[in-house]
Amino acid sequence: MKYVSTRGSAPELEFADVLLSGLARDGGLYVPAEWPQLSRETIAGFAGKPYHEVAFEVIRPFTGDTMPDDVLAGMLRETYSAFRHPAVTPLVQVADNRFVLELFHGPTLAFKDVAMQLLGRLMDHVLAERDQRATIVGATSGDTGGAAIEAFRGRERTDIFILFPDGRVSDVQRRQMTTASEANVHALALKGNFDDCQAMLKGMFNHFTFRDKVGLAGVNSINWARIVAQVVYYFVAGVAVGAPHRPVSFTVPTGNFGDIFAGYVAAQMGLPVEKLVVATNINDILTRTLETGRYETRGVTATTSPSMDIQVSSNFERLLFEVAGRDAEAVKRQMDGLSQSGAFGLPPESLSAIREVFAAGRADEAAVAQTIARTWREAGYLADPHTAVGLSVAQEQGASQTPMIVLSTAHPAKFPDAVKAASGVTPALPDWLSDLMQRKERFEVVANDISAVENLIETRARALAAEA
Ligand SMILES: Cc1ncc(COP(=O)(O)O)c(C=O)c1O
Ligand SMILES: N[C@@H](CCOP(=O)(O)O)C(=O)O
């Protein structure tokens, strides 16, 4: 399997190189040259299979010669046996024909663990084979950072630097990033918002001297391996409610468009998906784009679902590439428009192709609080604010014969203040995190200055490589 860049001028790569390269060298994102197909029989055969076995069948077509089948199968078994629920991503029914897909049973209580736990193992494997080290830099609005640190802490071949927006993540999220004691972990609180963190990260990938000197690798969803690992639970959940014999819809709390793009990939591979519903909070650039056909950035407002306080949704570029018939020049023009004027318009054909598969809705802060309260009262189900954005938007879609699966992207205990304010219930952290608030924190505050942050990373990475 070869991978191509959405901007058309970076070299085509194999999976192992895509895994280590993060952003393509032309600034684009890698996607597979073609979508592997799973037959109806294969999909039907997923029913009742353990999660890691479905994961093998879904992921295997993407990995090419990166590793032998038995190594991948063993890695997947090990990855998902560490999840705290036997089903890994269980489904809970909350209303007629409406289900919540709980993706938060990994070590850091967010859906990011599903992919990140695998990514850590995949990268270790490839780096060991090549006898190489990598410097990982990640940008987070709260959850990617904790999940990445958990997946890479103490790993010998990687140093990990996480940029998070100072003061804009929950206490639990911050502590999950700042309490790791391993020398290879560096939490950096950036004076800015998530978009500043993500723009700085992309700036580093586009600064080739720095990129090559430190062996820069990415763990955000710009990394294709993150997306592919997330495709699995769409199949698992879809089959659990009757696919491929009936279609299924998903509502996805959305920020960087990675999670919902994984749903799009599942549909491309053969899962019968009726609708993918983009659920945004009041930082609603994607919902506005689907309504108006114009992608236009505005300021970011802090909300009770901070992980979705995002304006520039990286993975939307992957969808633009698809709906433009893989016309990389068109995507490049749109992205140039975005960097020059903060906006671009979608051609009518692209917009209607998007609307065929996707719907969208937003939930404001009042709707989020009401949804947490109502779901607790009526279904006895305690949702975190991100999941509540999804539940609120799914409710607005109205009744349908097609099962609607709402992705629950975080455990309510990550956001206890908002959940308590809405429902009166304080969600408790699970045992293994119960002392999180007492652990010692270690992080540095950094200015929104790419040269200064690059210097810091280079110095630290060099020191750690010398010790290794
Ligand atoms: C809890 C939570 N929900 C939803 C999202 C949005 O997911 P995506 O960025 O893949 O759209 C995020 C962040 O990515 C998150 O951390
Ligand atoms: N919501 C995310 C933002 C980064 O998204 P990613 O999926 O590209 O890593 C977070 O929690 O950090």
TrEMBL record:
<keyword id="KW-0663">Pyridoxal phosphate</keyword>
<keyword id="KW-0028">Amino-acid biosynthesis</keyword>
<dbReference type="InterPro" id="IPR051166">
    <property type="entry name" value="Threonine_Synthase"/>
</dbReference>
<dbReference type="GO" id="GO:0009088">
    <property type="term" value="P:threonine biosynthetic process"/>
</dbReference>
<dbReference type="Pfam" id="PF24857">
    <property type="entry name" value="THR4_C"/>
</dbReference>
<feature type="domain" description="Threonine synthase N-terminal">
    <location>
        <begin position="2"/>
        <end position="80"/>
    </location>
</feature>
<dbReference type="InterPro" id="IPR029144">
    <property type="entry name" value="Thr_synth_N"/>
</dbReference>
<dbReference type="Pfam" id="PF14821">
    <property type="entry name" value="Thr_synth_N"/>
</dbReference>
<dbReference type="GO" id="GO:0030170">
    <property type="term" value="F:pyridoxal phosphate binding"/>
</dbReference>
<comment type="similarity">
    <text>Belongs to the threonine synthase family.</text>
</comment>
<feature type="modified residue" description="N6-(pyridoxal phosphate)lysine">
    <location>
        <position position="112"/>
    </location>
</feature>
<keyword id="KW-0456">Lyase</keyword>
<dbReference type="GO" id="GO:0004795">
    <property type="term" value="F:threonine synthase activity"/>
</dbReference>
<dbReference type="InterPro" id="IPR037158">
    <property type="entry name" value="Thr_synth_N_sf"/>
</dbReference>
<dbReference type="InterPro" id="IPR004450">
    <property type="entry name" value="Thr_synthase-like"/>
</dbReference>
<dbReference type="InterPro" id="IPR000634">
    <property type="entry name" value="Ser/Thr_deHydtase_PyrdxlP-BS"/>
</dbReference>
<dbReference type="InterPro" id="IPR036052">
    <property type="entry name" value="TrpB-like_PALP_sf"/>
</dbReference>
<comment type="pathway">
    <text>Amino-acid biosynthesis.</text>
</comment>
<protein>
    <recommendedName>
        <fullName>Threonine synthase</fullName>
        <ecNumber>4.2.3.1</ecNumber>
    </recommendedName>
</protein>
